[in-house]
Amino acid sequence: MKMKELLLFLSCVLCVSTDSLHTDIHIVGCSDFNGEVMFGLDREELWYADFEKQMDVYPQPPFIDPISFGDGAYETAVSNLYTCRQLLQLSRQGMKDYPPLRDAPSGVMIYTRDEVEFTVKNTLICHVTGFYPAPVKVSWTKNEQITTEGSSINTPYPNKDGTFTQIARLKFIPQQGDIYSCTVEHLALTKPLIKIYNVETPETPETPEKPKPSVGPAVFCGLGVIIGLLSAAGGTFFILKANKCI
């Protein structure tokens, strides 16, 4: 196992039923300055520890039955974080302070959660993936002014290749001409990555063109008249010619 700057432990359990496959994940990760303890199901967070606010968080939608990890879940996460950092120091001593591996984000996208309607509440999403180690720092601006109200970011989620994904959100009310940006910072970046979102007028459906009159019947009618005249002329010619032969 290759040791990296972030020591990460993953515990995955596959739960198989007759018609579905679910993945349960438990993450304990740490570095000198950051740490993460999270439980998830099918790439969705069920619970994580917020070490800055010193509390546990249940980022579950209100329409599902609540899931609880017990009153001592946050204290257990703090203990796991301490153990993780102890193991990190032992690994450094054993490998003589291995050089850090750093991967800059391979993809940054900004988009809205819902279709844009002016004055209707919406959410901007800044999707960052392919980076190592975790986390990234994401900041928002509105019309070149830093904004924090209504912003949030999830805990780093591991990808299959060992890198991470994080999603930052900003609640906003679309107004014509407003310009938003999300700025991504990471240890492997020499300068921040910036993505811009312009609030533009929603496209209006084009007025359908009036159907043009069909030329088919007129053409066929014209051909019918011409053929009829030619037939009449031919008939007259043969009649006259027959009269001369009498």
Automatic annotation (TrEMBL):
Topological category with respect to the lipid bilayer: Single-pass type I membrane protein
Any one annotated GO CC term: MHC class II protein complex
Coiled-coil residues: none
Pfam families linked: C1-set, MHC_II_alpha
Record flagged with keyword Protein transport: no
Any GO BP: adaptive immune response
Ranges where the Ig-like domain occurs: 99-194
Highest taxon of source: Eukaryota
Primary subcellular site in the record, as a coarse category: membrane
InterPro entries in alphabetical order: Ig-like_dom, Ig-like_dom_sf, Ig-like_fold, Ig/MHC_CS, Ig_C1-set, MHC/Immunoglobulin, MHC_I/II-like_Ag-recog, MHC_II_a/b_N
Signal peptide (residue range): 1-18
Swiss-Prot/TrEMBL keywords: Adaptive immunity, Disulfide bond, Glycoprotein, Immunity, Immunoglobulin domain, Membrane, MHC II, Signal, Transmembrane, Transmembrane helix
Family: Belongs to the MHC class II family.
Protein's name in the database: Ig-like domain-containing protein
Species whose genome carries this gene: Oreochromis aureus (Israeli tilapia)
Name of the gene this protein is made from: LOC116312657
